[in-house]
UniProtKB/TrEMBL annotation:
Bilayer topology: Multi-pass membrane protein
Keyword 4Fe-4S attached: no
Domain ABC3 transporter permease C-terminal: 180-300
Keyword tags: Cell cycle, Cell division, Cell membrane, Membrane, Transmembrane, Transmembrane helix
Spans through the membrane: 21-48, 177-197, 231-256, 276-297
BP GO annotations: cell division
Family assignment from sequence similarity: Belongs to the ABC-4 integral membrane protein family. FtsX subfamily.
One Gene Ontology cellular component annotation held by this UniProt entry: plasma membrane
Protein name in UniProt: Cell division protein FtsX
Annotated source species: Candidatus Berkelbacteria bacterium RIFCSPHIGHO2_12_FULL_36_9
Localization, UniProt: Cell membrane
Domain FtsX extracellular: 61-145
Major subcellular location class: membrane
InterPro entries with a match to the protein in the record: ABC3_permease_C, FtsX, FtsX_ECD
Amino acid sequence: MSSQSIRRIIKLGFVNFWRNGWLSSAATLIMTLTLLIISVFLIFNLVISTTTESIKSKIDLSVYFSDEATDLQVQELKLFLQQRPDVKGVVFISKEEAFKKWQEVQKNEKIRQLVTEENNPLPRSLEVKANSPENLDSIANFLSQETYKSMIRKISYQENKDVIQKLINITKFSQKIGLILSIIFIIISILVILNTIRLTIFTRQTEIEIMRLVGANDSFIKVPFLIEGTLYGIFATFLSMVLIWLGLYLISPMITKYLGEVSLDMEGFFLANLPWIVLFELLIAILISTTCSMISIRKNLRL
């Protein structure tokens, strides 16, 4: 096939795309929504998984002692914990240090005045850092023994564990919803593109017959439809990228404000991985659109 024929085929593909304005717009819009849902679903899950792992690595276990516990008992327990192979480090927080930390964190002046150095109800504590988040359970079980119940007021691990579990539950739920929506919109995209190409073939039957009569080969007739389908994918990829970036740009500050330190930097993740996301979307879009075009051509175009 000559370069001139290739140029004509490509030109016909573009002409088909622009000629069927409303049909092309509908197919591109549905494809855009499909890519949008798939991409947001993947970005959200990757970011929340990374955030969960990051939070896990930072979580420690705090042991708060009752006032009846002696300093000797506290130091002995600290020594026992330091000797455990699953413990990375143990830090003792005295009542004075706890008071200073509380004063730094508490911004309400009236509440701050309720606690003074002379009247300090804040307990002594140990901050235990595990070698791995998975070891926190066994450390918590060790501290929950009957031997230590009289000296330990509270172990904070359960609250931290609940936060992690909530994040895991959110991830699982979003995975299910994202997967269902992705499948639904992929099916809709397939049906729309199949019918768009079918209608294009139907409206161009007379033109196709003339092309056959003047000796045009099968490739010259079929390939423009494949190019048309590919254009759906290319334009849909571009639109979905723009919409994703705008959406993340607008909602990221709100997410950061709502979650505080436990922030999901979705915009940062998107920009850092933009080339791979574009490539991924483009491959999916072209795969869906060209496959649908080939099926529609084979089914509706009799040469």
